[in-house]
Amino acid sequence: MMSKPKAQQPATIHKVIMVGSGGVGKSALTLQFMYDEFVEDYEPTKADSYRKKVLLDGDDVQIDILDTAGQEDYAAIRDNYFRSGEGFLCVFSISEQESFQATAEFREQILRVKNDENIPFMLVGNKMDLEDKRQVAVEEAQSRAQQWNVPYVETSAKTRANVDKVFYDLMRLIQRSKEASQNASGVKKPNSGKDKKDKKHRKCIIL
Ligand SMILES: Nc1nc2c(ncn2[C@@H]2O[C@H](COP(=O)(O)OP(=O)(O)OP(=O)(O)O)[C@@H](O)[C@H]2O)c(=O)[nH]1
Ligand SMILES: [Mg+2]
C-alpha cells in the first residue's frame, strides 16, 4: 500500500494576489469564493488575507488569497505584495472602461516585480451581470489577453458565475508552473514511467 501524507502535514500552498482598480469587485470575488456570500456594500480594502483548504484535482492544497487595495497610493507597498504572489487575478469591471485600461499598468508592475513573463496570471472581467452597462467589449478584453498570452474569463461576484473557475484555473496554472520549475532544477527522474508513480509520493517542498 502506498503511504499517504500525514494529515498534520501542511498541504501545498498556492499564493494568489487580487489586483485591479478600486471598486471592480476584488473583495466581492474573494468573499464569494471563501464564504459563498455577495457583499453589496462597498468598503475599500486596505489589504486582507484569506486561507482555505481546497481539493485541487484530487490533491489537498491550501489557497492563500491576498486581497489588495485598488486605491493603494504607494507603489512600493504594492511591490511588496506582488513579490509574495505566485499567481495573479487581474480584475477589471466590464462596466468601467477606465478599470480595463488600468489592467495594463498592473500587468507591467507585476512583470517588473516578478521578472517572469510566464507568471501565472488571468485577466478577469467582473460584473458580467451588468450587461446593460457594459463598456468593455468581450473582443477587446480577449485581444488584450491574447497579446499577453493569458486566459480571459468574465465573472460575476453577484451571481457567482465563474467565481470558482477563476480561482481553480489560476491554482492549476500555479501548480503547473511549480512543477515546471522543479523539473528544470533537476528534480526530474531519468525514467519517465516512474515519474507518474512518484506523483503520488510527492513531498511538500519548503522553499
Ligand atoms: N453587480 C455587481 N456588483 C458587484 C460585483 N462585484 C462587486 N460588485 C459591487 O461593487 C462594489 C465594489 O466591490 P468590491 O469588491 O468592494 O471592490 P474592490 O475591487 O475590492 O475595491 P477596493 O477594495 O477599493 O480595491 C461593491 O458595492 C460590490 O457589491 C458584481 O459582479 N456585480
Ligand atoms: Mg476590496
From TrEMBL:
Localization per record: Cell membrane
Q: Which PROSITE patterns match?
A: RAB, RAS, RHO
> Region Disordered: what ranges?
178-207
Q: Please report the record's description of how this protein sits within the membrane.
A: Lipid-anchor
**MF terms per GO, please?**
G protein activity; GTP binding
Keywords linked to the UniProt accession: Cell membrane, GTP-binding, Hydrolase, Lipoprotein, Membrane, Methylation, Nucleotide-binding, Prenylation
The source's domain of life comes to: Eukaryota
Biological process GO annotation list? signal transduction
Listed GO CC annotations: plasma membrane
Which protein are we looking at?
small monomeric GTPase
Q: Species name for this entry? A: Paralvinella palmiformis
Q: What's the source species' lineage?
A: Eukaryota, Metazoa, Spiralia, Lophotrochozoa, Annelida
